[in-house]
Design brief:
Layout lengths: L1 H33 L4 H11 L3 H6 L5 H42 L3 H19 L6 H9 L11 H4 L13 E8 L5 E5 L5 E2 L4 H12 L6 E3 L2 H6 L10 E3 H10 L3 H9 L4 H15 L18 E2 L1 H11 L3 H7 L3 E6 L2 E6 L12 E9 L3 E10 L2 E10 L4 H23 L4
């Protein structure tokens, strides 16, 4: 029943639209006649139709009586056209009502809506409402699409990705070292100095840990932290403890957290960066340079050998081992709970025994990963820099693990028995 009522309303609207269109046609015809441009033609046609040729001969464009006669004749034609239009409009409206009622009764509201939409679209096209303006056309014509070249990493620009290795790794730089004996098991471009992205945060955590600052001190995220990185869930005004900020920085590579740690360090950000570089020199990391604590700057650079040294030293701090290998962490912030997960997918893999880790990525650095892990009974330090592809650094680590395990099996069989 509701469908029938809806159809009747649509049909009534169609009738009203048809009547308005006919009235508009009549008004236009009357205006054109009174302007005097088509007087002679209209009078001639009217005289021919009424079989009164003498009237056409006696009327001229300059005669006032002729103009009145033309208006009268045209008026008759307009009345006839109006009557015919009203008759046709009524017939169409009646047909529309019957069709709408049938569709509604048949339970086909989809076709009913489609038919109504088509009528509305036709009316809009007839009225010219859908025609784009000249300004829109000009604006569209003035837009030029300029292709943007993809940003390449520093390693790719230096041609390091073209180098091959026995394990066919995706990373431009790789280094695998036995942590206890310092034996190099595998190396690839290990002296190349490249941007290290968020691997920087490992040094940030080391400086904080060695400063023995209170981990319970409350720190508030400010606009300065927000300006460093926009895509963060830590809103301005969020207050967390120093320990929670370290947790997010090392586990989830949270940039605002890392910046807040450096900003609130005694002496400020500049002093914090000076201590980062001083610590690097103290550890013999001669290829390493820091300019800020997050790793978002491509000027934070190091080599695989230096990073292996950093991992070995950071592993000696229990808090860095614990926070960096945490699988996840929840923050209770008022009425909402934020879930943070470890940025290293290998942490959740039961086949891995990882003691410390850190991931990193910016376009200039590519995908980066450093880890301390136990493989085939050996404590190994792995460094992977400038890897192409989101999963490629984890795949490289898997290849190294399988290779080390295979090497261990071969050595066990090669040992003399008895």
């Amino acid at each position: 029943m509701q469908g029938i009522r809806y159809a009747l309303r649509l049909a009534a609207g169609a009738v009203l639209t048809a009547s308005l269109s006919v009235s508009t046609l009549a008004l236009a015809a009357n205006t054109a006649t009174s302007s005097g441009k088509a007087k002679k033609t209209v009078v001639a046609k009217a005289a021919e139709k009424s079989k009164r040729p003498t009237l056409a001969k006696s009327v001229t464009a300059k005669s006032p009586s002729g103009a009145r006669t033309a208006q009268k004749s045209a008026g008759k034609k307009v009345v006839v056209a109006t009557a015919r239009g009203s008759k046709n409009g009524s017939a169409q409206a009646k047909s529309s009502v019957e069709r709408s009622a049938k569709l509604a009764k048949a339970g086909r509201p989809d076709r009913l809506a489609r038919a109504t939409g088509q009528k509305k679209q036709a009316l809009r096209l007839a009225s010219g409402k859908n025609r784009p303006s000249a300004q829109v056309d000009l604006l569209a014509a003035s837009v030029v699409r300029v292709p943007v070249e993809p940003r390449v990493s520093t390693g790719e620009r230096l041609g390091l990705r073209a180098s091959h290795d026995a394990l066919d790794l995706n990373s431009s730089v790789a280094l695998v070292v036995d942590q206890e004996t310092s034996e190099v098991l595998f190396s690839k471009n290990d002296t190349a100095v490249l941007p290290i992205a968020s691997l920087t945060k490992l040094m940030t955590g080391l400086v904080i840990a060695d400063a023995h600052l209170s981990l319970d001190e409350q720190i508030t995220i400010t606009d300065d932290d927000a300006m460093v990185y926009r895509n963060s869930r830590l809103a301005v005004g969020t207050t967390l403890s120093r320990g929670e900020l370290m947790h997010l920085a090392l586990m989830s590579s949270e940039n605002r957290a890392a910046n807040a740690l450096g900003r609130t360090f005694p002496g400020g950000s500049d002093q914090f960066v000076r201590l980062m570089n001083a610590k690097a020199r103290e550890l013999g990391m001669r290829d390493t340079r820091y300019v800020e604590p997050t790793g978002l700057s491509s000027q934070n650079q190091s080599s695989a050998r230096d990073l292996a040294t950093l991992v070995s030293v950071a592993y000696e701090r229990p808090i860095l081992r614990s926070l960096s290998t945490s699988p996840s962490h929840q923050l209770e912030l008022g009425h909402r709970t934020l879930q943070y997960n470890n940025s290293n997918r290998l942490i959740r893999n039961p086949e891995w025994e990882i003691g410390l880790q850190k991931t990193g990525y910016i376009s200039e650095a590519g995908r980066c990963l450093v880890m301390q892990a136990k493989v085939a009974g050996r404590k190994l330090i792995m460094v992977f820099l400038d890897s192409a592809g989101k999963l490629s650094r984890a795949q490289d680590a898997e290849r190294v693990r399988r290779w080390v395990e295979a090497q261990s099996i071969q050595q066990s069989f090669a040992r003399p028995q008895g």
